[in-house]
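User: Fold this; tokens only.

Assistant: Input:
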Amino acid sequence: MIRYVRKIFASLLFALLFMGIAFSVAIWFFGPLLKLGEWQPFGTMFAQIMWIIGIWVFIFVVLITRWLLRRRREKKMGDEMVADDDDDEDDDAVKQELKEMRARMKDALKTLRKSKLGGRSIYQLPWYVIIGPPGAGKTTAIVNSGLKFPLAEKLGMKALGGVGGTRNCDWWFTNEAVLIDTAGRYTTQDSDEEADSQAWNGFLKMLRKFRKRQPINGAIVAISLSDLSMQDAQQRKMHADAIRHRLKELREKLGVRFPVYILFTKADLIAGFSEFFENLSREDREQVWGFTYKFKKGKKAPEPMAAFDEQFAALLNQINNLSLERLQQEMDPQRRGLISGFAQQIASLQSVAKEFLNEVFQEDRFSERQLLRGVYFTSGTQEGTPIDRLMMGMARTFGIGRQAIGTGSGQARSYFLKRLLDGVIFKEAGLVSADDKVARRYKWFVRTSVTAALLAAAAIGALWGFSFVGNKDLIATAAERTQLYDQLAKNVPTSPIEDVDLTQIVAPLDLLRNIPGNPAQGDTETPRELTYGLYQGEYVGNEAALTYRNALNQMMLPRLLLKLERQMQGNLNNPDFLFESLKVYMMLGLQGPMNDTLVTEWMRGDWMQTYPGEGNAQLREGLMNHLTSMINQPMREIALHGPMVTQIQTLLAETPVSQRIYSSIINSPPAKALPAWRILEEGGPLTSRVIIRPSGAPLSEGVVGIFTKNGFYNVFLPAALDVSEQLRSENWVLGERGEDLSDPNALTRIARDVLDLYYTDYIDAYESVLGDIDVKPMGAVSEVVDTLNVLSGPNSPVAKLLKSVENQTRLTQREAGVNVDGAVEDVAGFAGSELFDAQSVRTQALLQVLASSATSAGQEAPPPEGTVVEQRFEWLKQFAVGVEGAPSPLDEVMNKLTNLYQELNRLSISGGSANLGGGAGTELQLLLGRMPDPMKRWVEQVTSGSAGATIGGARAALNASWQAQVLPTCNRAVNNRYPFFKNQQADIPIQEFARVFAPQGLIDKYFQDNLMEFVDTTGSPWRWRRVQNQELGISDSVLLQFQRAAEIRDAFFLSPGLPVVSFDLKVLNLDPNARRVQLAIEGQILDYRQNQPAQDVPMQWPYEGGPTQVVLEPKRRNAENSRAFEGPWALFRMLDAAEVRRTQVADRSRVIFNIGGRIVSFQLRAGAAYNPFQLSALTNFRCPSSL
């Protein structure tokens, strides 16, 4: 029962029905919860029904397809079985016989398909192959088995001869199984080995092709006991080998592991068989005589012959038990003798049968173990002479003749076949399985598939679990933020609103805006872990969006309107501000067309002023986000301040329209976005070296982008000429007080006035920037030379700036290829103007309107637009460009500047300081009268600055540079610092000391660069040297300080960098009351004990750091035993605390310490020519306040 239940659960039909029911229930009850993005596949009842119908239709199609494929496979198999491949036969009689056999096979298959064979087709029945040597009794066993043959009535009790691919096989179709009786030579293959082998392999190929999963359900090996008894050992081994090879081929070719049943046929030929079993009833004869092994799967299966002896012994024991009963029943002495010897006859077969089966089931490492299920003895009929194996053995042993036993007699009956086949073999049809290798692969495939399915299910479950938890958290977060918003919103007044403080509304609005799923957040990507059909963000977000929109309209919009009202009331005298603010005010009040860009830019600028600085950057960003969300959603209409709007409209109506339009163009976002004309960019990278702005404005600024050719042609001119469009787009702001747009002459006049305002500001912009450019003041000769080198060079910033301004002010000619509107190139001939060749079609048409209006009034055609500016800067064109083919005046000035540079450069190299009043300087002075301003001013600045290169101006220049570059640092480093001021506690840092006094330090470099050529340093003290019979006029006291600085440099610095002082110390005398003295200098130790030889100890300052101290031992109570000093100059402070005496040797000094009344003296030997420890320059140096 369990077997059938398991079979039902393992069937495809059950799997499909279960799947259909499961999916149907899931779709009906849980389908509406599934959502994939915007798609909800099971959202409606109709969709659910259609999906369920689709699933059952799919299941029905699968079952029908499977049934049709099975029918097709069965038909194809039948066709293959009766295929006509006998064309090589020459005998007509054979052909006719084959034709009749093929017809019988087709008729038989047709009959079998109709009979259904107990509800199953022949494909579904188990198939068994019967193999064995010729004459083994295979056919006899089948015929007398007692099975039911559905074709018996039509064909009789005989096999259906094979044709085509099964020509040499006999087919036996029963209600329980299909038995294939193979030709005996298939087993032995001893007649024609090659032909038999090909036929056998073809037969196996046919089975494998049409029964892929279970080509056969078992193999029945029939062995005749007469052959087993009569053959010698060699012959038995040959038959055993043949059977073993056939079984091996079956397993390898078919790829399945099938049970093998050994049938020892013709058991009736064993002496005493008929007499022993004569009295058995029909039911007894149908029993099984033999033994079946216990079945174990896989590697646990024992060896095939392991239990043979035990099972055979049990069989013999059963015969012995029956022998006594049979002997009592039999009266005939001869028959009693046969019955009594029957058990011995069977026993004599044990060794032969075991030997034979051992050969058949012999194992090796290259083949898989066969599944031997059992060994059985059968008799299909009783014919022939029984064999007395005992007498045969005695005859062979003693050489005597054999006595005839007699032949079988009586009615032929079958023994031990029926239940063996239908009760044992057919019942075990399910034991067939894939070959071990195939089974292992299939097992791993199943395991992998199951694991993958489980992992997939676990993954899906985990994803849904994560999604559920995530969405639960999302809902909780939304609820928490909504609750927090309610708490914060209570503190924000909403009606009436009397404040404009937006800081209080940002926090509650942020809470609503950041609720998960709120569309106001923009195209934020939904976290993948929240999807998988469970995402609730849209439901939550839609509610949040509605609440957020209401909050914006209640909290933010009224405050913006109130802020605009107060701003307009405070700027009634500023028409430009009033017009733009009123426009924004009416847009937010839904009284005019919304311009998102204008509103956001206006508010951005306002918030930059109201909430300035980096600290409020996050606040401004939050406000911009809320503003963008507000204007992108339906806004609530709020009543505006009507009287104020009327008042402002009246004021604006009194302001000239041209001024208002001009201001709107200049302040428009396109105008603001234009790149500016910058002094630093136009003058080149050298500009900052020679140019300054007296106003203090940075060189990175210049002229706003609207006042450039690019701004003129691409932004201002199209907007200015399109006055009607401008008025039409903004006339609604003034309401009934707006302009009358019906008079074309008025529109033309307004456009002309707008252009005139622009030209005025354009001219002023460049005149202002040229007036705010000066040559950088020059001090030292090197600065003058450097400045002249830059000003006169090929990349002169002055020349480049003048030429750039000239180009920007030549408005009637524009650069080719620059046109936003889409230029129409090379079109000329409009009112004698060159402007037409690079204008957009729309701009050309507007210009033509202006020209036609002027000519219709009797006036001459107006000059090209931009002529006013070009005429104002005509002087610049004449100066910077000049006459074609001749050098310009600017080129002449550049040549004179070059000459001046060369002259001063020669003087600088030669060390001279001659008067600049002659030569190139004079020539420049002569040109001043012909130079336009600002060039005249710049040249005067150059000539006056170069005067500093003369001796008369050198002192002032030197003093200025000294006080600017050196004196501040020198004072900070030296004043009130030790060692320059002995009584000061503050030390000069070593790095600062090096910066001021080291070679190439501040003082040394300044002296070398500026004063060296004027000083005689060969003697002491230093003396000023006369150059060209002139002196600088700097006092000797100043020069003495430079000499002292040089002495400090030579004493402390061997090379640029930090100071290094090397010296040796040696103890000269130690007080008798002291046994030991220890002198430590920044971690360097001199340790001396009384009466030991004194040695020089080399030391260095500064060192790695450490204590600086003198310590005497033994220590005495209530007395001074040591002295310690701190700081980077601790060594020098220690020497100041001691008595330092000079010796006759310049580099040696005697240093005496009195510590608590005990005297210790040292010899200090300096390691340089200048002794830094007795350097008076160190204490006498002071920074000169001026030169």
